[in-house]
């Protein structure tokens, strides 16, 4: 062969070796045509490269990872290994993993299903380099895939658990086993309609966007590299096989990967034009956007833009030219060319060919073809932008890919709001206004196309400011390690001067500074930052600027944390209204504003309104974000805590467990969301009296928090407190006390001794001291907590009311009734003014003050307070709730001391079994409830009845004497 023929053979060989096994032979035959010598040379090169064994696989399809093998492909298992599999290392093990069967094979690696036995038992997929494939380049690419996967942490990207080499030196890595089928196969098997397919497609887009954010381009997106597994009855796509991934900004392996000119990397049917150029110079994240467009094309039409046969018949040069230059038909046009096959394709989508063609024509055509633009600069700038346009289509909104025609936009506006168009006159008005509306939408759409670039510029300006700010924090002046507070104070000082001419950037930075101050509990410093940010954003766009809603939520959160719930509400409601107007009611940001409002309503005790708002937020997030999204898990958790606050503990528990399991699935390893979910579930179980069941959740939360933050961190202190509380409830005071004290010391050393967390720790320790009879120490602790909360939060915060009540209860137990009364009254006044008259905490204050007045001999004055308490609790809780029963018991005692025995008897005896069975009340409170009944019968002259209840006291021994 002459040099020109040898070069041609090399080009065909370099392309053929990258193709799947089932495509390689056909490609070689097509590329070589009738030139038998050329074909023989290429085939010889393939054999030399892949070793003799690989020839047996040239005509055999490569099953997807996670697919079960066909019956004819079953590999015999004998004595712990796959007996007839020459590729498997000796003894049927790869590293510490026991191999079960071969489940997949690609150009350079084999995938096995294996079992891990320690430290946990689970099935995994192991990818190992084929025998004879351990060349320098293949090993480098294999290591690149391993590193690419390890860098990512996304619920829709197969996770990497481990990596290593066999005794013979063959590299392998261990990844999540995905027991699923390819994306297109799953959709067809389950006859998913177009909307359901688009939902799965958006999830894939978000996974690819995550990879891009980590600096990884997949370069081989196709259905067999997106497997769909069913988890909890719902389909979950998983992106696999980053074997040809390219690092954008970083080196993935210590070995060098040489991409030779003239080499095709990827699968031709899904390959972008810049990939087909084979130089690799223009390959960036938009390459994956093109492949996603092809994937969307196939999901919609059941066909590819360029079929495999067309590509093979075009030959090598023709294939390159077709991918780079030929415009494929639009999806709707493609459907019309499918003939009889169109009927089957439409049936898989629960429709008929004409209806499918009408459904795809227009917006879905535009979205797909924009993603597949030959000019990569005209594609969507990111995978999330592509997903966003699909979501806009599903929501009936204007898609960015559409042509800016006034007719189209007017038609969308009328269709979306058709229930308002009730007469020809209204239609005429809509048409007249439509020109203005469509022009506004056009400008909005055109601006949205530049959003990514503008956001990048904004991020660059913010980054520049942060660098200047950090360089201004002089270690010589501030010590070797500047604290977070010092850096924050410096940022607040510099933002005014350094960003004076960049109002939008300044507003974003002020928002961040204000939120950080708020997280530190410094509400005084937070307020001017957040108010200035809000004012700037309102000046920039007023009610047309979505960032205004974000600032309104910030201001609402500030008022919320200050305990001024009435002031917080208008901020949250304005944010909800603005998001609804600008974004629509099916946008995740609108759901976030609803979520904030729901939390506020919960704190106000407006449970019915809070629950409906919370459920709306959850429904929107489920629809927009998919089944396994952190915000969906957060909404489920919020709904569970809301139900818990209403005493609907049985309804709350499955939701709390669902949220925790979702976060375990999403994050897979230690994560703050998992630790928080463990704490929340533990608290819910504790509220149900399931202390033994709750304890391991609190212990796991503590272990996870330590793993995340180390042994000394404020979050570790919080986890210690939670564990201490459940031990306290079980009467294990000697175990709980050192945890309480350790948490207090840790708070003081990590975040300072003048923080809300320290006040809470003092309060918790004071309650334990009271429970163990150390009343004088408990009083000192509660006084300290009250003083600290007054200093930090002001005199009118609900947390101050809690400290007032706790201190008053200690004084009441010590017999200091006159001193306790003004504390109870102040707490009641604060709660009425901040939380409203119907709040459960108002009922608690009424009960405390009423009980005290009875003890002081002022039963007639106590009675209306106790009746109001009973009324509020009956509105919020069921009759079988211990809170209702306890309120009835105290009211019954109040009537008893006034000589109204018949009415008192009904109240006192009705709820006593509930009180005795309650796990939330201490033995001391239960003894007190029983003594109220005994007092009734003694005063009523019924000694036999009094004696029978006196026997009940033995169930709840008074373990401690007041000191």
Which helices and strands appear, and what pairs or packs with what?
Blueprint (H helix, E strand, L loop, with lengths): L2 H14 L4 H12 L3 H15 L26 E2 L2 E2 L10 E2 L2 E9 L3 E8 L5 E8 L6 H15 L9 E6 L5 E6 L4 E2 H7 L4 H20 L2 E2 L8 E6 L2 E6 L6 E2 L25 H4 L8 H17 L6 H6 L1 H11 L5 H6 L4 H8 L4 H8 L2 H9 L11 H12 L11 H11 L7 H26 L1 H22 L2 H4 L5 H15 L4 H17 L3 H19 L4 H16 L3 H19 L4 H16 L3 H19 L4 H16 L3 H19 L4 H16 L3 H19 L4 H16 L3 H18 L5 H16 L3 H19 L4 H16 L3 H19 L4 H16 L3 H18 L5 H16 L3 H10 L1 H6 L5 H18 L2 H8 L13
Antiparallel strand pairs: 1-2, 3-4, 4-5, 5-6, 6-8, 7-8, 9-11, 10-13, 11-12
Helix pairs in contact: 1-2, 1-3, 2-3, 6-8, 6-15, 8-14, 14-15, 16-17, 18-20, 18-21, 20-21, 21-22, 21-23, 22-23, 23-24, 24-25, 25-26, 26-27, 27-28, 27-29, 28-29, 29-30, 30-31, 31-32, 31-33, 32-33, 33-34, 34-35, 35-36, 36-37, 37-38, 37-39, 38-39, 39-40, 39-42, 40-42, 42-43
């Amino acid at each position: 062969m002459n040099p020109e023929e040898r070069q041609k053979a090399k080009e065909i060989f370099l392309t053929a070796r990258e193709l799947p096994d089932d495509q390689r032979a056909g490609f070689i035959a097509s590329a070589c045509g009738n030139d038998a010598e050329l074909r023989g040379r290429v085939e010889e090169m393939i054999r030399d490269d892949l070793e003799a064994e690989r020839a047996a696989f040239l005509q055999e399809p490569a099953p997807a990872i996670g697919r079960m093998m066909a019956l004819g492909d079953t590999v015999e298992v004998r004595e712990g290994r796959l007996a007839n599999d020459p590729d498997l290392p000796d003894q049927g093990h790869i590293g510490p993993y026991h191999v079960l069967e071969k489940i997949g094979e690609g150009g350079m690696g084999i995938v096995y299903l294996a079992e891990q036995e320690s430290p946990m038992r689970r099935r995994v997929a192991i990818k190992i380099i084929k025998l004879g494939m351990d060349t320098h380049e293949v090993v480098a690419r294999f290591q690149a895939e391993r590193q690419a996967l390890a860098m990512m942490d996304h619920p829709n990207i197969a996770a990497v658990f481990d990596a290593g080499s066999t005794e013979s030196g063959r590299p392998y890595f261990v990844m999540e086993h995905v027991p699923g089928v390819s994306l297109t196969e799953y959709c067809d098997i389950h006859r998913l309609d177009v909307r359901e397919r688009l939902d799965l497609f958006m999830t894939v887009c978000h996974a690819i966007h995550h990879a891009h954010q980590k600096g990884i381009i997949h370069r081989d997106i196709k259905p067999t590299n997106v497997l769909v597994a069913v988890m909890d009855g719902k389909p979950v796509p998983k992106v696999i096989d980053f074997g040809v991934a390219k690092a954008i900004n970083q080196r993935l392996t210590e070995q060098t990967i040489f991409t030779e000119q003239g080499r095709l990397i990827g699968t031709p049917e899904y390959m972008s034009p810049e990939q087909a150029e084979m130089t690799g110079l223009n390959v960036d994240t938009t390459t994956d956007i093109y492949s996603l467009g092809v994937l969307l094309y196939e999901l919609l039409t059941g066909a590819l833009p360029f079929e495999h046969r067309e590509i093979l018949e075009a030959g090598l040069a023709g294939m390159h030219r077709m991918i780079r230059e030929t415009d494929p038909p639009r999806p709707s046009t493609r459907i019309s060319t499918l003939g009889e096959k169109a009927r089957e394709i439409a049936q898989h989508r629960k429709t008929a060919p004409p209806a499918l063609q009408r459904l795809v024509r227009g917006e879905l055509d535009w979205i797909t073809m924009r993603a597949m633009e030959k000019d990569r600069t005209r594609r969507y700038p990111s995978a999330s932008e592509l997903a966003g346009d699909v979501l806009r289509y599903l929501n009936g909104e204007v898609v960015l890919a559409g042509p800016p025609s006034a007719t189209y936009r007017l038609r969308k506006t009328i269709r979306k709001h058709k229930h308002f168009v009730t007469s020809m006159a209204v239609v005429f008005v809509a048409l007249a206004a439509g020109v203005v509306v469509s022009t506004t939408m056009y400008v909005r759409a055109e601006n949205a196309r530049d959003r990514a670039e503008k956001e990048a510029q904004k991020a660059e300006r913010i980054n520049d400011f942060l660098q200047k700010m950090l360089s201004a924090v002089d270690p010589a002046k501030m010590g070797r390690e500047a604290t977070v507070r010092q850096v924050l104070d410096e940022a607040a000082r510099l933002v005014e001067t350094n960003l004076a001419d960049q109002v939008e950037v300044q507003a974003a930075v002020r928002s961040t500074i204000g939120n950080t101050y708020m997280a530190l509990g410094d509400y005084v410093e937070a307020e001017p930052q957040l108010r200035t940010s809000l004012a700037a954003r309102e000046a920039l766009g007023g009610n047309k600027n979505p960032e205004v809603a974000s600032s309104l939520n910030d201001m609402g959160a500030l008022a919320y944390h200050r305990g001024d719930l009435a002031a917080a509400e208008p901020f949250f409601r304005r944010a909800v209204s603005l998001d609804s107007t600008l974004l629509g009611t099916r946008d995740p940001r609108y759901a976030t504003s609803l979520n904030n409002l729901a939390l506020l309503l919960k704190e106000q005790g407006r449970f019915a309104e809070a629950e409906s708002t919370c459920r709306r937020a959850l429904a929107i997030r489920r629809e927009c974000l998919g089944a396994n999204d952190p915000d969906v898990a957060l909404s489920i958790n919020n709904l569970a805590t809301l139900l818990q606050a209403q005493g609907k503990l049985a309804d709350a528990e499955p939701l709390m467990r669902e949220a925790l399991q979702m976060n375990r699935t999403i994050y897979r390893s230690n994560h703050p969301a998992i630790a928080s979910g463990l704490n929340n579930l533990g608290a819910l179980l504790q509220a149900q009296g399931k202390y033994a069941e709750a304890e391991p959740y609190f212990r796991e939360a503590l272990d996870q928090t330590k793993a995340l933050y180390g042994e000394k961190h404020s979050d570790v202190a919080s986890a210690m407190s939670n564990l201490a509380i459940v031990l306290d409830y079980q009467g294990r005071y000697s175990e709980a006390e050192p945890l309480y004290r350790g948490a207090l010391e840790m708070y003081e050393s990590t975040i300072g001794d003048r923080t809300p967390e320290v006040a809470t720790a003092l309060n918790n320790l004071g309650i334990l001291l009271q429970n163990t009879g150390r009343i004088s120490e408990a009083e000192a602790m509660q006084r300290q907590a009250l003083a600290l909360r007054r200093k930090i939060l002001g005199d009118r915060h609900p947390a101050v009311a809690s400290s007032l009540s706790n201190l008053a209860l200690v004084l009441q137990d010590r017999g200091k009734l006159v001193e306790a009364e003004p504390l109870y009254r102040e707490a009641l006044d604060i709660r009425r003014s901040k939380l409203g008259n119907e709040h459960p905490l108002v009922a608690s204050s009424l009960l405390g003050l009423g009980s005290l007045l009875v003890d002081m001999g002022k039963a007639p004055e106590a009675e209306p307070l106790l009746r109001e308490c009973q009324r509020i609790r009956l509105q919020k809780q069921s009759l079988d709730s211990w809170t209702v029963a306890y309120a009835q018991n105290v009211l019954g005692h109040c009537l008893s001391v006034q000589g109204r025995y018949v009415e008192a008897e009904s109240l006192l005896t009705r709820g006593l079994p509930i009180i005795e069975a309650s796990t939330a009340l201490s033995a001391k409170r239960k003894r007190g409830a029983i003594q109220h009944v005994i007092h009734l019968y003694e005063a009523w002259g019924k000694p036999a009845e009094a004696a029978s209840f006196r026997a009940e006291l033995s169930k709840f021994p008074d373990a401690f004497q007041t000191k």
